[in-house]
Specification:
By secondary structure, this protein is of the alpha/beta class. It is built from seven helices and ten strands. Helix 2 packs across helix 4.
Length: 233
Amino acid sequence: MKNCMVLDGFPSLGLVNAIAAECLIRSAGTELLAIIDSPEFPPLSIINNFKPQFPARLHINEDLKVAFFISEFSIHPAMQSNMARTILNWALENECKLIISAAGIVGDQPKITGENDAAIIPDEQPVFAVASTTAAGKIIRENGFIELRSGLVKGIPATLLNEGGLRGQDVIVLMVNTMLDAPDFRAAALVSNAVTKLVPGLSCDIGSLIAEAQVIENKLKQIRDEHKESYIA
């Protein structure tokens, strides 16, 4: 699928990626393009509408020209760089315009500063963003996000940024304040809204997300509890 947008939906801090991706997929409607599997993945089958699914998958919406890499479990840290390269390689092979990822910031983290080092009012819930290229940085500014001047990005989003910069692939990582060690649906809603600004025609039913929040939270917590020692960060 050429010239599409790619969304990284692998779980991160506060599970903001996973929750936002699920909301966007449900609102937009997608079809399964491929499964993502490895001998290192946990043996899980996700039952959805009576049907078994692999926990890591690639979904697409051809009309909206958007692809979603999603997973029902967190990738072990030792495998995160390889998974990011898998996303990046697919995007480059398909001449994709932009990769969008997200990362949570622990609410009281003091070293995150915007472009002008201006004081941020917590109640305004800002969305920070960092880009892999100059072109992606322009997209950040055009959409009113606060460009990250200093801070730390970890995991899959970090490798997407670093290698995206080296290989000339536009990558944007959205960053929002989130809770530590708990699914954060408010942060996921912020990410979902931010993504809809970047992907024309994409939407997220925030009301439905909140209504189903407890169901999603229970499912993700169950998987985390059953596999936390080996696979869940």
